[in-house]
Amino acid sequence: MIAKILLFLFLLFSGIVNAQITFDKYFQPKTMRFDYYHCGNHAEEEYYFDELKEEPYWGGSRHSLIDTTGFGNQFFKIIDQASNKEIYSRGFCTLFNEWQTTEEAKTIRKAMPESVVFPFPKKPVRLEIYARNRKGKLEKKWTQNIDPQSYFIRKFIPRYETMEIAYSGNPSKRVDIVLIPEGYTSNEKEKFTTACQNFAKEFFSYSPYREHSGHFNIRAVWAPSQESGVSLPGEHIWRNTATKAQFYTFNSERYQMIEDFQGLRDIAAHVPYDYIYVLSNTQKYGGGGIFNFYGISAAHHPTSTGKIYVHEFGHLLLGLGDEYTGNVSYNDMYPPHIEPWEANLTTLTDLDRKEWKKMIDKNTPVPTPAIPEYANRTGVFEGGGYISKGVYRPYQTCLMREFSTDRFCPVCTQAIVKYIHFLCQ
Fold first, then answer.
1. Counting beta carbons within 10 angstroms of the beta carbon of residue 21, is it exposed (0 to 12), middle (13 to 18) or buried (19 or more)?
2. Contact, 255 vs 236, CB < 8 A?
3. How far apart are CA 414 and CA 343, in angstroms?
4. Can you give the three-state secondary structure of the chain, one letter per residue?
5. pLDDT, position 304
6. Which end of the chain is more exposed for a tag (fewer CB within 10 A), N or C?
7. pTM tops 0.70
8. Cα–Cα distances in Å, from 292 out to 72, 236, 312, 393?
9. Closest to 275 measured CA to CA, from 77, 70, 60
10. In this predicted model, what pLDDT tens digit does every residue of 108-137 receive, in sequence order?
């Protein structure tokens, strides 16, 4: 028995060491950022290179380098040129992809600034960007060779003060959140600091983040705005702010978002981070969250800030889908006969490949009627992804659906915990 335990510990230690050696072989502990423009219309998308940047910290895992989750409408790989080996990859989503499903995208072409980040390579690499086609399959859209020795890589220049809100350990083994202020002027620093502290308090008051608070670090960057508050185009209110956030995104009043993602990265780079969350200086309900992109919401809503934070972070962390229905600007977000990649949505095209399927009791019918008998059971309930018919969710109530509850459903909870562990290896 002792020999078996020693062998297990040796193999475990060897795996950790080998993972560390793999990172050290290919990467330096800082970030390379690839800025580009995402362009097109409802049917086409193109990518145009902007510039490369070097940022001083790498906040991500040094072990979980290859993404095998299948999450995201976009995906990128870093390929070592010498060996043609994939050495880093991540799935993500973008605001541009959401815009493509709107009516406006049928009438005009548009460009949005975006970027991807990865550990700074030691040797030449190749970046490959993929996007999902109409059949839900990832297609290669962009390829570019990168020389990490190029003198055209722009160096980071710090401009802002940073703050530690909640620290639990080494960034490479934690989920690192950076909080960014929107619409706080130079004399509102204390108000923003309090908002950051409230974010941490509220965020860790909800399961499963409460039980996994030791897996998170939260920092903030103090980037003041010229004017207080946020822009409300539908009310003809425009303010000069740090991140240029605005409500009425895609003509949806409550959808508060930011097009200048590169500008957000410039602020976030002052600290090690995995995820960017923007605290907006307003009481007006609204915000948004996009997988591996950023999240934003009102920091001073009188009643629901905590639930908004964890709901939007569900989108940001691992791309959990909205489980509600109703009037939104999207027309074709979840095509029939294509299984959504989100862990908590299905069209019943291929439910068998989801972890969710294993959590359904054999006596629960599929689809599952939304009646009291199944009120506290995992099933397959129709209505989700903004659509009342043809898209299904796993539970009658969940924080990804409504704020009448204080909890995530078992499917969302399991997916969140599993992804936290992936990031913290």
1. exposed
2. no
3. 10
4. CHHHHHHHHHHHHHHHHHHHHHHHHHEEEEEEEEEEEEEECCCCEEEEEEEEEEECCCCCCCCCCCCCCCCCCEEEEEEECCCCEEEEEEEECCHHHHHCCCCHHHCCCEEEEEEEEEEEECCCEEEEEEEECCCCCEEEEEEEEECCCCCCCEECCCCCEEEEEECCCCHHHCEEEEEEEECCEHHHHHHHHHHHHHHHHHHCCCCCCCCCHHHEEEEEEECCECCCCCEEHHHCECCCCCCCCECCHHHCCCCCECCCHHHHHHHHCCCCCCEEEEEECCCCCCEEEECCCEEEEECCCCCCHHHHHHHHHHHHHHCCCCCCECCCCCCCCCCCCCCCCCCCCECCCCHHHCHHHHHCCCCCCCCCCCCHHHCCCCCCEEEECEEEEEEEECCCCCCCCCCCCCCCCHHHHHHHHHHHHHHCC
5. 82
6. N
7. yes
8. 8, 31, 12, 22
9. 60
10. 999 999 999 999 999 999 999 999 998 999
Q: What angle do CA 93, 66, 13 make, to 5 degrees?
A: 140
